[in-house]
Specification:
The complex is a heterodimer. By secondary structure, chain A is an all-beta fold. Chain A contains no helices and eleven strands. In chain A, β7 and β8 form a beta hairpin. The radius of gyration of chain A is 14 Å and the shape is globular. In chain B, 0% of the residues lie in helices and 45% in strands. Chain B is globular. Classes of the chains: A mainly beta, B mainly beta.
Amino acid sequence: EVQLVESGGGLVQPGGSLRLSCAASGFTFSSYSMNWVRQAPGKGLEWVSYISSRSSTTYYADSVKGRFTISRDNAKNSLYLQMNSLRDEDTAVYYCARDWVAVTGTHWFDPWGQGTLVTVSS
Amino acid sequence: QSVLTQPPSASGTPGQRVTISCSGSSSNIGSNTVNWYQQLPGTAPKLLIHSNNQRPSGVPDRFSGSKSGTSASLAISGLQSEDEADYYCAAWDDSLNGYVFGTGTKVTVL
């Protein structure tokens, strides 16, 4: 069974740092690009970051660029999100999601993990 | 800030057909395919439709997607109580070099 399990969320003060992890199982992790998506309480979905299968390409949403870093360890079947200079508006449930890409270049996400809650507050 | 616009809500009685629209621009829907995600209350999002109109295995054929120009739509025919959820459209945006989601539509079964 394909499974993604996030961890590392918690309460952090504004300006602080946190590192999220996503453990993958049930598929060949090293063959797939991965993403982080977040959802603020009561709000919609916001894509955060993308990393290619061999880490050669990364993309970030403008809202996190320069503060967040996506990385992966294919030997450990794990995806990470290092979050620095956290702000109140970063409070959200963070999901990791496997990326699919068609020959046309289009992307979609499937499956998603259950999410981990990050709360930025003093 | 979402760049794809959806109506905030939609509703119908059991058995009815409900349609959700998604409006974008030339850099996202206009040049890439559209995906739809369903988020049941208190759960993670789930892929519902990819590549404009392709249903993953296990998704009922009551759900269908279409795209025209810079807009897309999701139709739910034969609405059921378990379809009460939030629905999001999404697409890659070539200008932003990122994935964009719609504002989300809450579907209520009356």
